[in-house]
């Protein structure tokens, strides 16, 4: 590819970009392997992108950028065992439709479904759950191309260390080309969404966590207002939102109006507390039931930047109280609500919930707004609670910090030294977090 024809890649939020040496769209694991061998011959690094929903530089490709747009096949569906094998580039929304057609579902999901299957997995994407954990805990096997150009398969039984490490491997151990999911029979979720005051939410968070399969809440900074969300399995028939209510709530108010609000607060930050107060007071309760993934996920069209930390579950309320105190001390004007989710322990070596019951605190800013002071202050606070940063969301942690935060971090780096000594899959972000 000549310099004049080089393509510039950007992520969804627009805060990361790269102009790789060349771009390829392999159609099979063998073609990925050939691309890796070709890159090695030319002394180039290799990264496969997804849909760019990471805010960090996880997908930045300096040498060869592999696009997964031709790696979207559904290889097999076994309704008896629930094992479903799909290729890396299949978007989660397409995976959800395939599973629904076969009477299957993922046990838990995050709140968007635009990512590719591999992209979401490699950054340890998660939702909220009392019993069901994140995507990394729902995988039975992986196929990936290693730095030497070979295709490897791994599971709990076959190369178990590679499996545990590569589940949330940031593409640093190899290019994931296919994932075998361990799915469950399709189910309906009943969603109960209700506004609630800050003090009541914090007083009852343990109760809500214990009583609901999926509990989360949002706090609107500069206000007393929170929105609580409780999702639990129910028998049918489904009672979904009407098309009008869905459009009004999830399209118009949550995206169109919210986008307009952020354009206003971007130009006039001082108006943010007043605007948030109106938003918090306007929150309404609603209850509905629908196919699980339609309840787990929502459309997101307002672009933003995000930071998220996982802390020990028992530290959640003290951390939130300290965070609110920070708002009283700092001159922050934040229009986006702060999101709180919960997750049981996970086994994947680099899952943010590895080995401990975890609470996740996520902070956001409008994509055009500066984030450094706000994210830096929150990061300083949450690292004081042994926080682990989400791999796909903005943070400044390095290997020295992460080695103390993850019990298997040293094992991960040792395995990487063995499998990729020449750092074929490195980029600036992996150099930051793994200390090359």
Give the termini separation: 28 Å
Level of helix content? 25-40%
**Topology, number of strands:** 20
Nearest-integer average pLDDT? 94
Give me the secondary-structure category: alpha+beta
- The number of helical segments is 13
Largest sheet: 8 strands, antiparallel
State the strand order across the main sheet.
Answer: 16-13-15-14-18-19-17-20
Fraction of residues in β-strands: 15-25%
* Gross morphology: globular
Radius of gyration: 21 Å
Poorly predicted tracts of residues? none
Describe the structure.
The model has no long low-confidence stretch (mean pLDDT 94). This protein has 13 helices and 20 strands. With 436 residues, it is α+β, with helices and mostly antiparallel strands. It has helices at residues 29-41, 92-101, 117-122, 160-166, 198-211, 243-267, 272-282, 292-296, 316-329, 372-383, 399-405, 409-419, 428-434; strands at residues 9-10, 17-18, 22-24, 46-48, 64-66, 74-78, 83-87, 104-105, 139-145, 151-155, 175-182, 184-185, 188-197, 214-219, 225-234, 286-291, 304-312, 338-343, 358-366, 388-389. It is globular and about 60 Å long. The strands form five sheets. It has an eight-stranded antiparallel sheet with strand order 16-13-15-14-18-19-17-20. It has a five-stranded antiparallel sheet with strand order 6-7-11-9-10. It has a three-stranded parallel sheet with strand order 3-5-4, with helices on one face.
Give the tags.
436 residues; alpha+beta; five-stranded antiparallel beta sheet; globular
In short:
This protein is of the alpha+beta class and 436 residues long. It has helices at 29-41, 92-101, 117-122, 160-166, 198-211, 243-267, 272-282, 292-296, 316-329, 372-383, 399-405, 409-419, 428-434; strands at 9-10, 17-18, 22-24, 46-48, 64-66, 74-78, 83-87, 104-105, 139-145, 151-155, 175-182, 184-185, 188-197, 214-219, 225-234, 286-291, 304-312, 338-343, 358-366, 388-389. The model has no long low-confidence stretch (mean pLDDT 94).
